[in-house]
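Bumping with the actual sequence this time:
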Amino acid sequence: MTVLTESIRTLVDQFTSTAYNLDVAVTPPADTYTSEEFFAFEQSAIFARDWNCVGRVEEIAKPGDFITTEIAGEPIIVVRNRDGEINAMSSVCRHRGACITAPPARALDDLGAPLAETQGHVESFQCPYHWWVYDLNGKLIGAPEMGQTPGFKVTDVKLPRFKTEVWHGFVFVNLDPNAQTLASQLTPIEEVVTNYRMAELVSVEPDDFPNVPFNWKILVENFLDGYHASRLHAGLHDFAPSSGVEESPFEEDSAIVWGWSHNTIVDAGFNASFKALMPSIPGLPEDYRQACFFGSVMPNLMIIGQVDMLIAFLIKPTSAQSHNLRLYYLVPESTTKLPNFKELLDMSKMGFVPITEQDMGTNISVQKGLGSRFFERGRYSWQESMVNSFNRLLFRRYAAAAE
């Protein structure tokens, strides 16, 4: 638990004016993006209490399939057990604290690297240190040479388990045993994701971007910011102008900020042709064919809905000024069977490259500017309403933790 120092309390107080309504709110204090002390508070206030997306069900499709991740500094295993259920549990051995999924050795020229995330298939988990063995539900089933330890019983030992929830194919984990269900916090977009058939779409090979050099919140704000579309990206997707961005009704007790980009053409695509390159998602409502859906699920999942595919951004903060990013591409299974599917997907991805390069370059410059002694908190445009709503959700969590 992070100690609430005077500087953190001051920043939370200063953040109050960011949580005002759009017409009077100002942007957040710079230190909420640059301070490692505030980042540690944020990990406790948000990531240790909210539902964190950790991946897709396709990544743990069979019993024994597992992935590892980290939430608020906690090393986690997510595994499908023999009954087909998904378990999330601590990877910290109950003996001497080694991470049971860690490799047994580390190259001497790589001692400073963080513990890598892994995935694979196992029948059980064996700690590399002393070979304690845990089953797929986290129960200890083997402990060599412990028979002479008075009072020790293998059956008394198990790994801490965490709440899990699968939402339309995405796997979420929450460290808070008293957390409200995720689905109840995402009811505002249930109809939308059902219309996109998100639970039926399949994820193809994701793209990973490690060590992205700016604060995770800058990425979310950029994603939700309609103001820059017609400026920064002028000429690249003029069919989706800033004037066409519309926020859906904001609900403070939800975990979602979302809205639409209303396009000037039907079946638009973010590529040089301005047209979607793959077949439409079956059954997509007619009005969806002239719009793009944008949704940010607190705290670390963002989704873009297009006529032919969905793109999901999974964020894993690593410091106040860096994060890891994974992009998932979700398409109908029928699309993956097209003979030229790989080529169409690659061209669709390439269409995003110049847009992404502009976003990334600008976000890096924002991180630099936030460190300036001349930085001043600004006012919002009406086209930044979703950014304001995201920051209102943040403040709700900051304030709760500060209490």
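The tokens above came from a reply further down the thread. The first strand starts at residue 52 and ends at 56.
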